[in-house]
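Hi W.,

Here's what went into the run:
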Amino acid sequence: QKEVEQNSGPLSVPEGAIASLNCTYSDRVSQSFFWYRQYSGKSPELIMSIYSNGDKEDGRFTAQLNKASQYVSLLIRDSQPSDSATYLCAVNTGYQKVTFGTGTKLQVIP
Amino acid sequence: DAGVIQSPRHEVTEMGQEVTLRCKPISGHDYLFWYRQTMMRGLELLIYFNNNVPIDDSGMPEDRFSAKMPNASFSTLKIQPSEPRDSAVYFCASSNTGQGLNSPLHFGNGTRLTVT
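Here's what came out:
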């Protein structure tokens, strides 16, 4: 079982819709969770971090964490074509060791 | 802040040659990471350092790979001899635990390595 799992996609949503991206992780002692966005040919950039169970909102983005289910999600409201990218889920399993999922490719259709 | 600086941006070499990738972390950051990204395997952690000391090198694929961090502002990843299967984008990242133990990573622009 991979440490961090994501559906590779592509996930296609129409402009203005809500995009829902999901991630599961295997290590129960994981402490912190991150969502990165990566445009083609570019480096990953941080969108959200979440450490506690529940929801965390930042603008059009909401991260959700459920440690009991070992599940992290990212919701993007009012999706824009500029949101089209690969979204990487990352998990800090301790001692700053950060493991990434393989990413979900999101396509927002105008 | 200049961000994490990697060089070169692109490297094309022939199988069997030595390749050295370079990284300058953000000033004041105490952790430095080397990742490799391929379409098939995504972002893989190769090795990371804390205050210039290697903490975990379990991701280094084999003895052909080595990494050093001689000081807080410089790190190298060396592949000797290189093989075509080493072709990938290599990212360096740094973080600052002074902002908290769960501080995020800041990535460089990466080095695209092609081994022919």
